[in-house]
Amino acid sequence: GAEERAAADRADAFRVAAEIAEAIFASEALDDVGRAGKVRTLAVSLSQRRNGQLRSRVRRGSLTAKRLLEMSPEDLAPPERQVQRERARADAKRKATIPGHAAGRFGVSYAGAAAEHAGRRQEETPDKVARRRAAMLPPSLES
Question: Which listed site, 21, 23, 84, 114, has its alpha carbon 20 to 30 Å from 65?
Answer without folding.
Answer: 84
